[in-house]
Specification:
466 residues; mainly alpha; globular; DNA-binding
DNA sequence: ATTAGGG
DNA sequence: CCCTAAT
């Protein structure tokens, strides 16, 4: 107990250590987990800065069968980072940037201002640059020492706000590369404002007091503040982020203020990476793995039970980099992160070792220090099963039609999946074997096109027999 | 707490 | 990926 807390508090130290000695030797699992998301920024930097280490990592990844399970999670991350070095990343980044600007502009008045001044401080500390978007980026990115300092400060500010700030006003944005002093000053400001507010009830417009909570309706400023006190749920945030595109700019911006606030911090890290990767040495990887989304954020926050003010997970709750725009509109799959090939291989290994249904074990031994939950793994297996059946039908057709047939999975993996599927059929995948065979034949016989076969296969697989 | 199943 | 029911 105490030790864990101690570790947590000093995780910044661990960060440094890990970074200095490039060899990553995790001691405790918890520690590793802790470090992992803190390291995100470092890794970004490292990947972009020293191309040598990048290459070595890339080659390492090429043979992910090394069996160093402990390193697996880390390797995956590295790989992802490598992939981030491609133009896709920069593109997403740019978009993010635009998004941010759009958000932030209308609200330079309130907390946005303090936030920005905060940024300015951090940037001027390193290079004393002016106050504009680009200058901020420059200040942060050009300082070679920034990465370490950043994480330290990040931790400090996190602790500081968690312990000092009675309201979660700024806790939404712990990833922000700020220095601790700034954070504190803001906390103090908040207190002052509150004191002021209590002494002068008429000043309710400046800062909404808890009394007003109920009376708040559509009036913009109160509503805006009210959100800050009532810890918005993740859902809530998402809803508004979606609504933002539809609603009028002003109102939406007011409501999603906290969102853009947090964006500020994350933005910095991303812009930094973007800056550092001008032309990029892409194509470092084989080619087959489709680039997943940014994946900057590691942990998928697991469904907070209560959203109280004490919730410490703020860094993850909104660090969520949902760069999957497509699925954004869909209500589900908001946190979707594509499965990489190494992950799939690990999954297959795990299943072949522990069998079906031991998802927790598989998670423990193969996906430890990964954000994949046992349920995720099971789902992936389910999908894999379906996919393998689909491949079966496609394979034969692909010979006739020279269609690319869209195969992100290498054949050996599909083969292994198929073998495993024979050994232990997934519980109750409606007639897992029978229907698959039927699908296969029917697909080959009936349909001669490529994609219709897939869809038909899926449908057949999923169909419930009446 | 884990798992299965459905969306 | 998410949610829920069942265990």
């Amino acid at each position: 107990m105490d030790q864990q807390e101690y570790l947590r508090k000093h995780s910044n130290v661990k960060c440094q250590r890990v970074r200095v000695e490039e060899s990553f030797v995790p001691a405790l699992q918890d520690e590793e987990m802790e470090v992992e998301h803190l390291l995100e920024q470092h890794r970004n930097d490292r990947v972009s800065m020293d191309a040598d280490s990048l290459d070595s990592h890339a080659t390492l990844n090429g043979k992910h069968d090394l069996g160093l399970e402990v390193l697996d999670g880390f390797l995956d991350d590295v790989e992802i980072d490598d992939l981030e070095g491609t133009n896709v990343f920069s593109g997403a980044c740019e978009e993010y940037f635009l998004d941010f600007e759009f958000d932030n502009n209308p609200e330079v008045l309130g907390f946005g201002l303090s936030d920005c001044s905060l940024l300015q401080n951090s940037s001027s500390e390193s290079h004393s640059s002016g106050f504009s978007g680009s200058s901020i980026v420059g200040g942060v990115s050009e300082s070679p020492k920034v990465p370490i300092a950043q994480s330290e400060y990040k931790n400090d500010s996190l602790d500081g706000t968690a312990s000092h700030d009675p309201h979660d006003a700024f806790r939404n944005n712990p990833s922000q590369p700020s220095n601790g002093d700034c954070m504190y000053s803001i906390s103090l400001d908040m207190k002052h404002l509150h004191a002021f507010n209590n002494n002068h009830p008429l000043a309710g417009g400046i800062l909404s007091s808890e009394n007003e909570k109920d009376s708040v309706k559509k009036v913009q400023p109160p509503a805006l503040r009210e959100k800050r006190f009532r810890k918005p749920t993740k859902r809530y945030i998402e809803e508004f982020s979606n609504m933002r595109s539809k609603e009028k700019v002003s109102e939406a911006a007011a409501k999603t203020k906290h969102l853009s606030l947090s964006s500020c911090g994350e933005l910095n890290t991303r812009l930094k990476a973007l800056r550092k990767i001008p032309g990029d040495t892409c194509s470092n990887r084989n080619n087959d793995v489709r680039l997943p989304e940014l994946k900057i954020c590691k942990g998928r926050p697991k469904k907070e039970k209560f959203e109280s003010d004490k919730e410490p997970l703020s860094s993850e709750s909104e660090d969520e980099c949902m760069t999957l725009k497509k699925s954004r509109s869909k209500d589900r799959r908001k946190n979707q992160r594509l499965w990489t090939l190494p992950e799939v291989v690990k999954l297959v290994d795990g299943i072949s070792e522990y069998g079906i249904g031991q998802w927790t074990n598989i998670k423990r031994f193969f996906f430890d220090s990964s954000y994949r939950t046992p349920t995720d793994i099971r789902d992936k297996w389910r999908n894999l099963l379906r996919a393998s059946s689909a491949y079966k039908s496609i394979d034969e057709e692909a010979e006739q039609n020279d269609q690319p047939s869209l195969r992100p999975l290498p054949f050996d993996v599909v083969h292994r999946v198929r073998e495993l599927a024979k050994i232990h059929p997934y519980p109750r995948v409606h007639g897992s074997k029978k229907s698959r065979v039927r699908v296969c034949t029917s697909a080959v016989d009936g349909q001669s096109k490529g994609s219709p076969a897939i869809s038909l296969g899926k449908r057949n697989l999923r169909r419930k027999y009446t």
